[in-house]
Amino acid sequence: MKIHLPTYPQGIHEIVESLEPNALELDSNIFRENIRVVLTLDRHDPYLEVRFHLQTWTHHECDRCLTEFRAELNARSPMLYVLGTGAKVPTMDDADIIYIPAGTTDLDVSDELRDFLILALPGKWLCSEDCRGICPGCGADLNRQPCSCNLS
Ligand SMILES: [Zn+2]
Ligand SMILES: [Zn+2]
């Protein structure tokens, strides 16, 4: 995704886009649905303060019962882009800073979007907090049926 900077004069702008997962080279097993991108650009050269909000649905197999499920993913992150070098950097809470060449017309934020989404993925996938999983003895899905071997 590129932000065409000449379109946005000094001031605050909201930019909304819907991206296909393959536009960001994301894992197509997990990311199967479009990603809604809402970003707020506060431009006051040489600073471009950008707050990203990304929303999509991801697809997974439950770690416990192996059922496929879908989960909403939201990622929010600020970035500070600085046009040219040598500018003093203002403080913006928790924002990462990226220097871009003065005179840049198209600011490509694809790498940032991909990183935000991947960082927002949790380490564990459960179809629900209290998923009972599969019995190691009889293989019964304990969410759907009782165990027949009394192992659980
Ligand atoms: Zn489960
Ligand atoms: Zn069992």
What's the gist of this structure?
The protein is mainly beta.
What does this structure look like?
This protein is mainly beta. It has one domain. 7% of the residues lie in helices and 40% in strands. It is built from one helix and seven strands; from the N terminus they run βββββββα. The protein has a five-stranded mixed sheet with strand order 2-3-4-5-6. Strands 1-7 form a two-stranded antiparallel sheet. Strand 3 and strand 4 form a beta hairpin. The termini are far apart.
Q: Helix and strand layout, with pairings?
A:
Layout: E1 2-4, E2 11-19, E3 35-44, E4 47-61, E5 68-83, E6 96-100, E7 106-108, H1 110-120
Parallel strand pairs: 5-6
Antiparallel strand pairs: 1-7, 2-3, 3-4, 4-5
The structure holds zinc ion (2 copies).
Please describe the structure with a list of short key phrases separated by commas or semicolons.
mainly beta; 5-stranded mixed beta sheet; 1 helix; binds zinc ion
